Amino acid sequence: MKELHCGLIGFPLVHSKSPEIHKALFSLSGRRYRYDMLEISPDKLESHVPDLEELDGFNITIPHKQSIIPYLSELDVSAGRYQAVNTVKVHRGRMVGYNTDVNGFLGALALAGIPLKGRVLICGAGGAASMAATEAVRQGCRLVVTARESSAAKGGALARRLGGDFVRDPREAGKFDLLINATPAGMFPNHMEQLPAPREVIRRCCAVFDMVYNPGKTLLIQLAEKKKLPCAKGMAMLVLQAAAAHEIWYGAQFEKKELLNVICRMEASMEGGEGI
Question: What count of other Cβ atoms lies within 10 Å of the Cβ of residue 141?
């Protein structure tokens, strides 16, 4: 069986768990593989496109989820819908972009027993925020977007595009059924003391979803658990979106219990710090 040559592009990548997750998934499927970490700065992306065309597939993380789009041959309906790509399949030099973040997003919510309904606050304005906001509106939610000052223009554009509201201060926006953090707030190592929204806003939410996976329990998750709010965590999303990428690359199929085991192992590896 042919060895699959895959990888991850992003910048920076030093604390990524992707190699460990994909190692576990390739092991479950019995495929021979090579998975490279390709740290590419934003100004060097175009020059690396010929190298990417030689792979069988690759994953994409910050800051390339949207900037990769002009270099792709085709967008799957998922990537076109969310205007963000996190998985690419390469076949005979043609690069097709997909969005499996939505698989991880919806799967993690389902595992936590959190419905995507009602009034939803999206914290952030990047590719992951766009995906979550778009899916929330698709499922009939009332959308509110907030973002830090440097991303306010993008946040406002995202809210307008989807018929939602943009607020600079969510404290003035009432209660929310679900708060979704799609920002680096809480992330190891430089943002661990940050929250994506003021504490009083979090306390008024019925549930939270933190896309940050490192550390395993961010400040947001700790605060939500203290208030006994249902929580969905970033590691579940990360593992489930990776599993969906394997399905795209070579048709892999995983049992739910297998994926739960991988999630548990990865979460345990994060305890006490960066988990590397």
Answer: 22
Give the residue from 171, 159, 163, 150 showing the smallest Cα distance to 129.
Answer: 159
Residues 213, 17 contacting (CB under 8 angstroms):
yes
- Can you read off the two tokens belonging to residue 217? 């329990």
State pLDDT tens for residues 43-69.
999 999 999 999 999 999 988 998 999
Q: What is the pTM of this model?
A: 0.91
Domains with residue ranges and CATH for the chain: 4-101+236-270 (3.40.50.10860), 114-229 (3.40.50.720)
What pLDDT digit, counting tens, does each position of 221-245 carry?
999 999 999 999 999 999 999 999 9
The active-site residue out of 65, 117, 233, 257 is 65
Q: Name the residue among 123, 155, 117 with its Cα closest to residue 137.
A: 117
**Phi/psi at 154 (5° precision):** -65, -40
Strand ordering across the sheet containing 4-10: 33-39, 4-10, 57-60, 87-91, 94-98, 74-75
Q: According to the model, what pLDDT value does residue 142 have?
A: 98
Q: Write down the pLDDT at residue 269.
A: 86
61: helix, coil or strand?
coil
The Cα–Cα gap between 214 and 269 comes to: 10
Q: Is 63 helix (H, G, I), strand (E, B) or coil?
A: coil
Asked if 83 and 130 touch (Cβ cutoff 8 Å), the reply is yes
Distances (CA, A) of 192 to 195, 217, 222, 236: 8, 10, 12, 19
Please confirm, yes or no, whether 65 is among the known catalytic residues.
yes
Query: Do 88 and 68 touch, CB atoms closer than 8 A?
Result: yes
146's enclosing H/E stretch is strand 142-146
